[in-house]
């Protein structure tokens, strides 16, 4: 299986994350990607290549132009305003407040942030752009006939909406790739999100569309971030009514229950008759993940990788969450290897 990876992910190396009432060392760290890459190489999964340059057009197919401009300028504007720390919002347009884009960079941070844990630091935009290019390069392999490819993206993307960042995400890599596949001739694209957290951003981007199916297994938002997205009654709107399927699961979910939910998800994807499958591959469902509450074990990732392979669809894997525990590389590659075993 082809893997696409960029060392430009190292340009994002924030010092701060707001967590548990403290500014702590970020969970979403450069070490995550390096651990996964080392496992890909050790297991000889396949060729590893650098991304190509796709320019801005694919990003603007799913993200608001003013939001992209904000991301490009945020760090420069923050420093120019005399701030010494990393950029973190401190005010949001909450219920019954004006939903207007401020002039101040501090106001813009609150306007565009869906959560306050993710600081913007030097190199954030460059790393996010590189991650999108990684996803697009891997998607181009699928478009050109590859049965599977792995986009080793960092930072992740599924919390990034059309005009919102947060949850460590700035550009929605999976959504950008799915739209690229649609533009490249795929009539129907399914996105399967197996990250522990609901991909509110991906849902937002495709919520009113019938050509991209979004299916997610995740921690019940009554108990888990992002709290305000991912309930079972969120099923799409307008033309997209019925083309979003959320399968929220409770704290302590073991693999047997999770696997049953995956079977429901895969049945819906089969019914949709997708031309291609994009998997938002978060492995923070692992029992030892520091910020999640599912109980999957490393061997379970191999099992569900084989289930994905049995779908017999051209499949793009896009790395999402799963934090810097040593097993992140094992669990990611177990999914990919299981997929390939089923395809053999």
Mean pLDDT: 97
Count the E strands: 10
Low-confidence parts lasting 5 or more residues at pLDDT below 50?
Answer: none
Question: What is the SS-derived class?
Answer: alpha/beta
Describe the structure.
This protein is an alpha/beta fold and 344 residues long. The chain has a single domain, classed as Arginase, Chain A. The chain is built from 10 helices and 10 strands. The protein has helices at 30-42, 57-60, 65-80, 105-112, 124-143, 173-183, 200-206, 255-272, 298-309, 327-343, and strands spanning 2-4, 17-19, 22-24, 48-49, 148-151, 189-193, 212-219, 244-249, 276-281, 315-319. It has an 8-stranded parallel β-sheet, sandwiched between helices. It has a two-stranded antiparallel ribbon with strand order 2-3. Helix 1 (30-42) packs across helix 10 (327-343) and helix 3 (65-80) crosses helix 4. The model has no long low-confidence stretch (mean pLDDT 97).
